[in-house]
Design goal:
Chain A: It comes from Hyalella azteca. Chain A: InterPro entries: Rab-GAP-TBC_dom (IPR000195), Rab-GAP_TBC_sf (IPR035969). Chain A: GO terms for molecular function: GTPase activator activity. Chain A: It holds the Pfam family RabGAP-TBC. The complex is a heterodimer of chains A (454) and B (201). Chain A has 19 helices and 2 strands. In chain A, strands 1-2 form a two-stranded antiparallel sheet. In chain A, a hairpin with a 4-residue loop joins β1 and β2. The longest helix of chain A has 22 residues. Chain B has a 6-stranded mixed beta sheet, with helices on both faces. Chain B is an alpha/beta fold and 201 residues long. The chains are: A mainly alpha (454), B alpha/beta (201). Chains A and B meet through α7, α14 and α18 of A and β2, α2 and α3 of B.
C-alpha cells in the first residue's frame, strides 16, 4: 500500500506541467521505484538534462540527440576509419558537411556553433579559437596494419599527410594518439561489471553505420617470415584488442550491423575524451557511465535513445566529479585528496575511536576512499545497490557532501570489526566492503547529516 | 604478548601498464585461480599471503596498483615502503614493454635504493600473439641487473616461482634472519646481479 502511495507521489510530480525539482529530489533521495521507467526519467531530471518545463521536452530532446549523433558522425565516422579498404580512394577528400561544427582532428577539439552546448570544460578543454584544419579532411580507410599501408600509398599522391608524418598537425599523428586512448577505453569497457552479462549482450539499438572502434586497437603482430602466415591470418580475423585477455568466453565476432552494449560505451567514452581533451579518458570513467547507461538502456521507454541521452547525463555528472579524475587537481579544493581529507575529519568528529584505530594502524584513506569516492561507490556494491545509492547521490543538491556522509556511514557501520581487526583484515574489510543493505548506509548517512559539518 | 603467526613481514608492490595482468598474477598467487573478468584496479589493492622460506614463516603483504598515469600520485607513495617490486609487462603488447624504462625511473625516484626488483613478462601462454621475444626481456633485465621471468597467470607458469624468488632475494639481505648464515648473506648482497633466471615456460 505504502508503495502505491509512493508511486502516486512520483507520478503526480512527474506528470505536472512544471516539475517541482526540490520535491522530486526529496522523493528520489529515498529511492526511486523500479517500475515503469520512472528511474530513467528521474535521473534525466536530477542531472538537469531534461528541462523542468514539460512542454519543451520533445524539441529539446530531439535537438540534443541530433547533436550527439553529429558528434558520432564527426568523430567516429568522419575522424576514424572505414572498415572496407576498397573504398579508400573514393573516400579521400570526402569532407563531411556538419550541422554543428567543424572537427579539427589535429587538436581533438570541436568548435561549436551551438551556444547552448554545455559540455563541462576546464583549461585546455575550452574551445575558443580553433580554426578548421586547412588539411583536406579525408576518411581514413583501414582497420589493420596492412590496410594502413594501402591507404597511405593511395593517399600519398593526393595529400601531403601520411602515416609517418611527424608534424603535430598531421591527422595521422592524432589518429595514432586517439588509438592509444581507445586502447585504454577498450580494455576497460570490456571488463565493466563482469559479474553480469548485460554489457556483453547485443544492443537492440546499434549505430550500424559506424565503424567498429575496437578494431582500431587490434594489434597485429608484424611477423616477417611466411612461416607465420597461418597464425597471423587467423589472428587478424579476431575482434578486440590483442593486448588484453579476452573475457571468458572470448567474444565471438558479432555480425555486421550489430554491436554489444560495451561497444556503445566505448563509442560514448571515446567521444567524451575527444571533446574534453584536457581531461581525456581516465580509468574509472567506465564505472561512472556504466550505471547511467544501464538504467536508460533497460528502461521500458526511450531505450532507443539510451546512447545519446547517456552522453548528456554522463557529461552532466562529470561536471560535478571530473576534478576527482584530474591528477593535477588532486590537492586542490575540489580534488580527490581534499575530499579524502574531509572524509577523515568527518570520521574523527563522528567516531574518534575508529578514526584513531585507522590512524594508529597506518591505514591511509587512499587505500579505500580513493576508489569509493572517485567512482561514487560503483565498484563497492552490486549494480542494483549502486543504482539505489545513486538515487540518493543524484538527488542531493551537494553531491560531494552526500559522498562524504555515505562514506563516513560505511566506516562507522563497520566500527566493531575495525576496532578489533588488525591492519591486514581492516584494509581488506574496507577494500572489499561486506555485502550489506545499502538502505542502512543511506539511513546512517541521513542521521550523520544532522550533526556533521563536512 | 600475542602469539606471532609469522617471523618476517615483506612488503611487495606490483607495477606496470594497465591491462598487463597485475591483478591476475596476484590472484593466481594468493588464491591459485585465474579469472578473466577482473574489473580495472582503481588506486591500490591489497592481498596477504604467508609463505615458508628457509624454515621461516614470511608474511607477504602485496600491493596491487593501478597502471594508468592518472593514479601515479597515489601509487608512487607506496614505493617507499616496498621491499620488493615486480614490474610487469605483457609479451603481446609492445607498448607495455617500451614503458619498462619509465617504470624503472619511477622506482629510482620513489623507492628505497636497496629495493629488490624483478621484471615479469606476463601472458607467455599466448605464444601466437607474442610480439616481445623472450630475449628482449632477458636483455633489458640483464642490462639493469634485475631478475626476470616470463609468466602466465592463466596457465599458472612461474607465478609462485616469481614471488618465491623475490622473497628469497629480500630474505637473503634481511639482517638477523639466521645468525649462522649472516656473513654469507652479506656476500650475496648483490644477488640481483646474478644471471637472469633461465626458466622457460
Amino acid at each position: 500500500m505504502a508503495y502505491k502511495v509512493r508511486l502516486a507521489e512520483f507520478d503526480s510530480i512527474l506528470q505536472a506541467e512544471k516539475i517541482d525539482l526540490s520535491k522530486l529530489q526529496e522523493l528520489c533521495f529515498a529511492g526511486i521505484p523500479d517500475d515503469g521507467g520512472r528511474r530513467a526519467l528521474c535521473w534525466r531530471l536530477l542531472l538537469h538534462y531534461l528541462p523542468l518545463d514539460r512542454s519543451c521536452w520533445l524539441q529539446y530532446l530531439a535537438d540534443k540527440r541530433k547533436q550527439y549523433h553529429s558528434f558520432v558522425d564527426d568523430i567516429v565516422v568522419g575522424g576514424g576509419m572505414n572498415s572496407s579498404t576498397s573504398s579508400s580512394s573514393e573516400a579521400l577528400h570526402n569532407s563531411r558537411p556538419s550541422d554543428i561544427g567543424e572537427l579539427e582532428t589535429s587538436s581533438g577539439s570541436i568548435s561549436r556553433h551551438n551556444n547552448s552546448f554545455d559540455t563541462p570544460s576546464i583549461g585546455t578543454d575550452i574551445n575558443t579559437n580553433k580554426t578548421p584544419s586547412s588539411l583536406p579532411v579525408h576518411k581514413r580507410s583501414f582497420s589493420n596494419t596492412s590496410s594502413i599501408t594501402n591507404s597511405s600509398s593511395s593517399s600519398n599522391s593526393l595529400c601531403s599527410d601520411h602515416p609517418l608524418n611527424l608534424s603535430p598537425d598531421s591527422q595521422w599523428v592524432s589518429f595514432f594518439k586517439d588509438n592509444e586512448v581507445l586502447g585504454q577505453i577498450d580494455k576497460d569497457v570490456k571488463r565493466l561489471c563482469p559479474d553480469m552479462c548485460f554489457f556483453q549482450r547485443v544492443t537492440p539499438h546499434p549505430r550500424a553505420d559506424t565503424p567498429r572502434l575496437c578494431t582500431r586497437v587490434t594489434h597485429t603482430p608484424l611477423h616477417s617470415a611466411p612461416l607465420h602466415d597461418k597464425l597471423s591470418s587467423s589472428y587478424s580475423r579476431q575482434r578486440g584488442s590483442g593486448t588484453r585477455k579476452s573475457p571468458s568466453p572470448p567474444p565471438e565476432p558479432l555480425p555486421p550491423g550489430t554491436e554489444a552494449h560495451w561497444e556503445v560505451l566505448e563509442r560514448l567514452l571515446f567521444i567524451y575524451a575527444k571533446l574534453n581533451p584536457g581531461q581525456g579518458y581516465v580509468q574509472g570513467m567506465n564505472e561512472i557511465i556504466g550505471p547511467l547507461y544501464y538504467v536508460l538502456a533497460t528502461a521500458p521507454s526511450d531505450a532507443e535513445h539510451a546512447e545519446a541521452d547517456t552522453f548528456w547525463l554522463f557529461t552532466s555528472l562529470m561536471a560535478d566529479v571530473r576534478d576527482l579524475f584530474i591528477r593535477t587537481l588532486d590537492e586542490s579544493e575540489s580534488g580527490i585528496g581534499r575530499l579524502m581529507t574531509r572524509l577523515m575529519s568527518c570520521l574523527k568528529d563522528e567516531d574518534a575511536a575508529t578514526s584513531s584505530q585507522l590512524t594508529c594502524q597506518g591505514i591511509k584513506e587512499q587505500y579505500f576512499a580513493f576508489r569509493w569516492l572517485s567512482l561514487l561507490f560503483s565498484q563497492e556494491f552490486p549494480l542494483p545497490d549502486v543504482i539505489r545509492m545513486w538515487d540518493s547521490v543524484l538527488a542531493s543538491p551537494d553531491r560531494h557532501r552526500c559522498l562524504l556522509l555515505l562514506a563516513t556511514a560505511m566506516i562507522v557501520l563497520q566500527r566493531e570489526k575495525l576496532l578489533s581487526g588488525d591492519f591486514a583484515s581492516n584494509v581488506k574489510l574496507l577494500q572489499n566492503y561486506p555485502p550489506c543493505d545499502v538502505g542502512a548506509i543511506i539511513s546512517k548517512a541521513v542521521e550523520l547529516s544532522d550533526r556533521l559539518v563536512t | 604478548m600475542a602469539k606471532k603467526t609469522y617471523d618476517l613481514l615483506f612488503k611487495l608492490l606490483l607495477i606496470g601498464d594497465s591491462g598487463v595482468g597485475k591483478t591476475c598474477i596476484l590472484f593466481r598467487f594468493s588464491d591459485d585461480a585465474f579469472n578473466t573478468t577482473f574489473i580495472s584496479t582503481i588506486g591500490i589493492d591489497f592481498k596477504i599471503k604467508t609463505i615458508e622460506l628457509e624454515g621461516k614463516k614470511i608474511k607477504l603483504q602485496i600491493w596491487d596498483t593501478a597502471g594508468q598515469e592518472r593514479f601515479h600520485t597515489i601509487t608512487t607513495s607506496y614505493y617507499r615502503g616496498a621491499m620488493g617490486i615486480m614490474l610487469v609487462y605483457d609479451i603481446t603488447n609492445p607498448k607495455s614493454f617500451d614503458n619498462i624504462a619509465k617504470w624503472l625511473r619511477n622506482i629510482d625516484e620513489h623507492a628505497n635504493k636497496d629495493v629488490e626488483k624483478m621484471i615479469l613478462g606476463n601472458k607467455c601462454d599466448m605464444e601466437d600473439k607474442r610480439v616481445i621475444p623472450k630475449e628482449k626481456g632477458e636483455d633489458i633485465a640483464a642490462e639493469h641487473g634485475i631478475r626476470f621471468l616470463e609468466t602466465s597467470a592463466k596457465a599458472n607458469i612461474n607465478i609462485e616461482q616469481a614471488f618465491l624468488e623475490l622473497a628469497s632475494a629480500i630474505l637473503s639481505k634481511t639482517p638477523g634472519r639466521d645468525p649462522a648464515q649472516q656473513p654469507d648473506s652479506n656476500v650475496r648482497i648483490n644477488a640481483q646481479r646474478e644471471k637472469p633466471s633461465q626458466r622457460c615456460c
